[in-house]
Design brief:
The protein is α/β, with parallel strands linked by helices and 314 residues long. The protein contains 9 helices and 15 strands. Helix 5 crosses helix 7 and helix 7 packs parallel to helix 8.
Length: 314
């Protein structure tokens, strides 16, 4: 059997292509649960820190509340309480009062990170884990958000609105490999292994003003295309994000079938994390192309996703 496999591989090479590694087998070993985050090293963090020139910080997470449009049926609410205080002057002789809050909702709403347990291909997830093995009602037993180390990388922002010469990039517009290369070249920036890449489309402008267009915002979007996702995976980035709710283009690319294929390319097939609803406008206003990216997600055991507020530092 081994000789047959070797012969098959040799024939494939003669045909002009190398044999691709089975995506269900992580390059970091059969027990790996953090995927592309393995590319973060003390050396890469020190290199990212060298990008800090002014010390200015940027919130990359949008403000979220119960009206924030989200992928159906996700929703959230906050209830503020003053336990055991309503009919008193407070607690103790010093009258201590306090507010508490109860959060009710989905963790994949607003600014969020998609963990490696979020997306699969026919019930198979990153590193070949089958959902019957780890997806339990009370939390994931593998690939949970609590496994994620701090994501501290070089960050790259690509201004796709400028690339397409549109204030708000039209929905259904895919960012192809060629688009990404052209946008990076125009900005004089290079995408490298270990980076976090963010895309700016101006899509968040739909939520501004007295009459925000929630329906359009959450039903369609411009975004990363299939060739673009494959290109970023080939480079070896750690995470990919955008100022849209679902990262990839919707409607899906013309001539392709299937649902959220870009998510499948990035998460289960390459262990790359996805960041959604990222606030990129201030970086664009300041003409920031690269920066130090810092993200520490709440370590809720077994969680699939998590609301986040990453920081860009320039």
């Amino acid at each position: 059997m081994k000789m047959i496999a070797i012969t098959a591989a040799f024939v494939a090479c003669l045909a002009g292509g190398a044999v691709a590694q089975d995506w269900t087998e992580s390059q970091w070993g059969p027990e790996d649960e953090i995927g592309a985050a393995n590319r973060i090293t003390p050396e890469s963090v020190l290199a990212a820190s060298q990008l800090i020139t002014t010390g200015k910080t940027y919130n990359l997470g949008i403000v979220v509340d119960s009206s924030t449009p989200a992928f159906s049926p996700r929703s959230m609410s906050v209830t503020v309480l003053q336990p055991n205080q309503i009919e008193t002057d407070g607690l103790g002789s010093n009258g201590m009062t306090y507010n508490d809050d109860i959060f009710t909702g989905w963790l994949g709403i607003g600014p969020q990170i998609d963990g490696l347990g979020h997306i699969g291909v026919k019930h198979t997830y990153y590193n070949g884990f089958h959902d019957s093995e780890f997806a339990k009602a009370d939390g994931l037993t593998k690939l949970g958000i609590e496994k994620l180390p701090p994501i501290v990388t070089r960050g790259v922002l690509l201004n796709m609105a400028a690339h397409f010469d549109q204030e708000i990039v039209q929905e259904g517009t895919p960012y192809t490999k060629e688009d990404i290369q052209a946008a990076a070249s125009a900005q004089g920036v290079e995408i490298r292994e270990g980076d976090t890449v963010l895309f700016h489309s101006g899509w968040l402008n739909l939520l501004d003003g007295e009459n925000p267009d929630h329906q359009r915002y959450v039903s369609v979007e411009p975004g990363l295309g299939i060739s673009g996702a494959e290109y970023l995976a080939e480079i070896g980035v750690v995470a990919v994000g955008a100022d849209t709710w679902g990262l990839e283009t919707l409607p899906f690319e013309e001539g392709t079938d299937g649902v959220f294929k870009v998510h499948q390319i990035l998460i289960p097939q390459n262990g790359i994390f996805i960041l959604e609803n990222m606030e990129t406008r201030e970086l664009v206003a300041d003409n920031v192309n690269e920066f130090m990216f810092v993200l520490g997600a709440t370590r809720l055991k077994g969680a699939v996703q998590m609301m986040i507020n990453p920081t860009a530092i320039r």
